């Protein structure tokens, strides 16, 4: 994270502006910006490490009329972005109670709500990313060019042991297709380290995928057995010190890869939903359509607004931008 001292040393032209804002004594404001809206529950994929199918095996989609009603209420409360969540969100559809639309169609309906500026899909299984969803994200101005697609492992053998319904080649091909249609599409992910049977070669396959994909963010977890799951009794459990050492290595690799991804945006103008002023750096901070946390010099009164920010610096401390202008609406 950047500190004020770091900002003043590396961006001296901001000194006057930041000091003027400090003198003006504007208090940091945190406006309502992003709301999470759950639209689906239950999962029957039966990943061998997961206990959810044991407790919530029945899949249910929230009727789309209720989703739209709730979304309108959130917009009326001041939220500009809605993050759609669910246990198996890609399964959203008429077979499980949506009342008609599948996920892509629901997003299109949400896109018609005035005042709702951004729609983000929180986490979707790789096998459930449809061509229609990709097309919608590529063409709809309110859809964020960002998907969270759990990888769990980059090794085909480990994926089989996890009972995940894809292999390394499928995952990499999906990312290739996404980025061919949606330039610089941000991909975040979940990765589990130390699943039973993960040897060094298998771990290296995960590192390979992380290097290739350049996730904008990767949530890394150490495998820990869940009661009554098939993985709990698998042989070849990985010792804790090995898991810890692999976690460390993967953290290092994924941070560097995320920085390379962010660096691809240098010089581009990104749409940022402004959240608050960083207490540490004194800069305003917000989240871009591509899920970058961006800091820039600006007035606290911008909190809650969509602004255009040019990306000017990417470093281990974060992503720095300069304000280009206000965006009034995604559809303008
Ligand atoms: S990890 Fe996700 S997809 Fe797999 S069983 Fe659990 S909830 Fe379902």
What would you say this structure looks like, in words?
The chain is an alpha/beta fold. It has 2 domains: 4-29 and 267-327, OB fold (Dihydrolipoamide Acetyltransferase, E2P) (Beta Barrel), CATH 2.40.50.140; 34-263, pyruvate-formate lyase- activating enzyme (Alpha-Beta Horseshoe). 33% of the residues lie in helices and 23% in strands. The chain has helices at residues 4-10, 15-24, 52-55, 64-76, 103-110, 131-139, 156-161, 168-181, 200-213, 240-263; strands spanning 34-41, 60-61, 81-86, 118-121, 143-148, 186-193, 217-222, 269-277, 284-288, 293-296, 306-315, 318-327. The chain has a 7-stranded mixed beta sheet with strand order 2-1-3-4-5-6-7. Strand 9 (284-288) and strand 10 (293-296) form a beta hairpin. Helix 9 packs parallel to helix 10 (240-263). It is globular. The two termini are 34 Å apart. Residues 43, 45-47, 50, 52-53, 87-88, 125 line the site of iron/sulfur cluster.
How are the elements arranged and paired?
Layout: H1 4-10, H2 15-24, E1 34-41, H3 52-55, E2 60-61, H4 64-76, E3 81-86, H5 103-110, E4 118-121, H6 131-139, E5 143-148, H7 156-161, H8 168-181, E6 186-193, H9 200-213, E7 217-222, H10 240-263, E8 269-277, E9 284-288, E10 293-296, E11 306-315, E12 318-327
Parallel strand pairs: 1-3, 3-4, 4-5, 5-6, 6-7, 10-12
Antiparallel strand pairs: 1-2, 8-9, 8-11, 9-10, 11-12
Helix pairs in contact: 9-10
Bound molecules: iron/sulfur cluster.
Iron/sulfur cluster is lined by residues 43, 45-47, 50, 52-53, 87-88, 125.
Write a short abstract of this structure.
The chain has helices at 4-10, 15-24, 52-55, 64-76, 103-110, 131-139, 156-161, 168-181, 200-213, 240-263; strands spanning 34-41, 60-61, 81-86, 118-121, 143-148, 186-193, 217-222, 269-277, 284-288, 293-296, 306-315, 318-327.
């Amino acid at each position: 994270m950047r500190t004020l001292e770091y900002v003043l040393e590396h961006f001296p032209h901001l000194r006057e502006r930041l000091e003027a804002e400090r003198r003006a004594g504007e208090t940091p404001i945190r406006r309502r910006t992003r709301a999470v809206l759950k639209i689906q529950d239950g999962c029957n994929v039966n990943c061998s490490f997961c206990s959810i199918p044991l407790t919530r095996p029945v899949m249910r989609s929230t009727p789309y009329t209720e989703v739209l009603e709730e979304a309108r209420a959130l917009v009326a409360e001041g939220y500009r972005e809605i993050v759609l969540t669910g246990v198996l969100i890609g399964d959203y559809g008429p077979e499980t109670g949506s009342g008609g639309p599948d996920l892509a169609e629901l997003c299109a309906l949400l896109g018609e709500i005035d005042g709702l500026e951004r729609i983000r899909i929180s986490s979707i299984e790789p096998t459930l990313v449809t061509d229609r969803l990709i097309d919608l994200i590529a063409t709809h101005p309110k859809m964020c060019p960002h998907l969270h697609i759990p990888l769990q492992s980059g090794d085909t053998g480990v994926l089989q042991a996890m009972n995940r319904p894809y292999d390394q080649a499928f995952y990499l091909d999906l990312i290739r297709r996404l980025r061919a249609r949606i330039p610089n599409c941000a991909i975040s992910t979940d990765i589990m380290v130390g699943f039973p049977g993960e040897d060094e070669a298998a771990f290296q396959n995960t590192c390979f995928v992380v290097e290739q994909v350049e996730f904008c963010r990767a949530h890394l977890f150490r495998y820990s057995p869940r009661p009554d799951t098939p993985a709990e009794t698998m042989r070849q459990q990985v010792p804790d010190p090995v898991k810890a050492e692999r976690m460390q290595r993967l953290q290092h690799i994924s941070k560097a890869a995320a920085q390379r991804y962010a660096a691809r945006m240098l010089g581009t103008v990104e749409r940022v939903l402004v959240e608050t002023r960083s207490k540490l750096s004194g800069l305003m901070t917000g989240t871009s359509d591509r899920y970058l946390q961006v800091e820039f010099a600006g007035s606290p009164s911008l909190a809650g607004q969509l602004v255009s920010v040019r990306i000017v610096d990417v470093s281990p401390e974060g992503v720095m931008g300069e304000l280009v202008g206000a965006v009034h609406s995604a559809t303008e």
